Amino acid sequence: MNFSEQGGITGSTRILGIIGWPVEHSLSPFMQNAALRQLGLDWVYVPFPVAPELLGQAVAGLRALNVAGFNVTIPHKSSIIPYLDALSPEASLIGAVNTVKREEDRLVGYNTDCTGFISSLRRDLGLEPEGARVVVVGAGGAARAAVTGLCQESVSSLLLVNRTEERGEELIRRVRTEFPHIQLRSASLRSLQDGDVLASADLIVNTTSIGMGGSSFSGFDLSSMKSGGGVYDMVYVPAETPLLAAARGLGLKTANGLGMLAAQGEAALRLWTGAEIPADCMKKALLSMLDGGY
Description:
By secondary structure, the chain is of the alpha/beta class. It contains eleven helices and 13 strands. The protein is globular.
């Protein structure tokens, strides 16, 4: 009898988790435990609410308790870095950690948002990023992960647009040092009103929270995008934002961020357990949960 059949916690159960403040909204415990059950592993994934002023103590406690690994969410993705022993190249470049793995006596920080985003582009949008011309909206942590992942996949060009152009330029300068062969530039959000900007794009990625609760972009006209182009919105509630609805109405390929959430979770679980994660098992669990009115 494997663990998924016997159920419950044993004396040998390995512990995973997620730290954040707040953390009650997180979907990660649901999808990670669903995958652990499917794999039949004697592991469990639990939420740890950690206030910002207690972050150092919390990391020390997780280290002392021999926790196998944990995810990191807002507001700790950058502030956790001084408490870790090492960073992966992606986490170092992005300046943010969303996954921590115990490696012998060290805690190593990773960022699986990069691989999660690229995996979702391929699975959910059917788009191969190599050689693509991309417009990314936003300059926050999600944008840093998306831009890094896209550059690692050798996009042809990338335009970053943000309300505060200076913040966008700061991100572009940071990435340009690692990817000098890619055409990278930033512009204000107003530049999206220029039809030529979108006419040359193969892919538009929204990394902002615009779209949650049905809010929509103003002055964002997708009609100039060429046939076969794709629009990716990291917002996943609602499942179809006004941006995605407009894109679908124009015959463009569309995908929301649920696939990215699932894929980054798969990458994290693979890091921790070394197991091969069944394709889409986490996304199916998430869809089931959201369909149930979560």
